[in-house]
Structures are given as structure tokens and as C-alpha cells.
Design brief:
Helix content is about 75%, strand content about 0%. It is mostly helical. The protein has one domain. The relative contact order is 0.11.
Length: about 70
């Protein structure tokens, strides 16, 4: 989450709403695409490069690929 508004929205969601959101992302097969796009945006400097976050996202991406495919 990059903006203050996104963090505020996330913090106001209940755990059930967060789980539902994640379930929708997985069911629609977009979770991997979103993680991939986030990595790409940082690497192409469309977003501020945070090397630790890129490393974490890369790890998450490969884990999702292993679990889903």
C-alpha cells in the first residue's frame, strides 16, 4: 500500500473483509498479476524503488506460482 488513503482503507476493513478481498483476488486469478505488476512498476521506476520490497514481492510471486500452478 503506497498512499495514506490506501492504508487508511485497509486499516478500517474488518478481518473478514480483508479475507474476502484476498479470496476474490485469488478466485479471479489476478493476485499473481498484481504482484508481478508491482514488481515491474518498481523496476521500471514508475514507482519508488524499494529493494527490500522488491525482494519480498519476488519471493511472494514465486510462492504464489508454486501454489497456484
Amino acid at each position: 500500500m503506497n498512499s495514506i488513503n490506501e492504508k487508511a482503507v485497509w486499516s478500517r476493513l474488518t478481518n473478514d473483509e480483508r479475507e474476502l478481498l484476498l479470496e476474490c483476488l485469488f478466485n479471479q486469478k489476478v493476485a499473481i498479476d498484481i504482484v508481478s505488476a508491482e514488481i515491474s512498476d518498481m523496476e521500471c521506476e514508475r514507482k519508488q524503488l524499494d529493494e527490500l520490497k522488491v525482494k519480498q514481492l519476488s519471493s511472494l510471486y514465486y510462492r504464489l506460482c508454486e501454489e497456484v500452478f
